[in-house]
Amino acid sequence: MAIQRQLTNDRMSQVVVYNGTVYLAGQVGDDMSAGVEQQTREALANVERLLDLAGTDKQHLLSVTIYLKDIDAHFAGMNAIWDKWLPKGVAPARATVEAKLCDPQILVELSVVAALP
Fold first, then answer.
1. How much is the pLDDT for 1?
2. Is 117 exposed, middle or buried (0-12, 13-18, 19+ CB in 10 A)?
3. DSSP state, 110?
4. Which pLDDT score is estimated for 114?
5. Which among 27, 32, 44, 100 has the fewest CB atoms less than 10 Å away?
6. Cα–Cα distance, 107 to 68 (Å, whole number)
7. H helices within 12-114, ranges in order?
8. How many whole angstroms separate alpha carbon 86 and alpha carbon 38?
9. Using CA of residue 23, residue 74, residue 87, residue 30, what is the dihedral sign?
10. Rounded Cα gap, residues 23 and 111, in angstroms
11. d(CA 94, CA 69)
12. Sheet holding 21-24: strands in order across?
């Protein structure tokens, strides 16, 4: 079975599809000056766009790892947006951790694995 890579550069691919599973590169918001709620909205919009490109959607999420710059300060705000975004009954396996992210303005990053329908 061939590995499919989309939106690829020398360092990484935004989307990798293999054996019915979709792997997304870490997704962040577009406006790094925004608060965690807006960064979460934008990151989730990017996730949806990439899942669509791969031929799937958030109904098929398998696993999500959420990285927060400051878990104490940002967990509730991120979850408020997450809970509105995620359809009932399709919650993936999920972990949320505090991490030093690649840019100090990034407050949240999402790593997503989904199934193809």
1. 82
2. exposed
3. E
4. 98
5. 100
6. 6
7. 36-54, 71-85
8. 16
9. negative
10. 8
11. 17
12. 4-8, 13-18, 21-24, 108-115, 61-68, 93-98
d(CA 115, CA 109): 20
Q: Which phi-psi region, left, alpha or beta, contains residue 27 (left: φ > 0; alpha: ψ -120 to 50)?
A: beta
How far is the C-alpha of 101 from the C-alpha of 117, rounded, in Å?
32
pLDDT in tens, the chain (117 residues): 899 999 999 999 999 999 999 999 999 999 999 999 999 999 999 999 999 999 999 999 999 999 999 999 999 999 999 999 999 999 999 999 999 999 999 999 999 999 999
Please provide the distance, in angstroms rounded to a whole number, between the alpha carbons at the two ends of the chain. 17
Closest CA to 15 of 42, 44, 66, 55: 55
Structure tokens of 14? 């935004």
Task: Give me the amino acid identity at 25.
Answer: A
Q: Do 63 and 92 meet the contact criterion of CB atoms below 8 Å apart?
A: yes
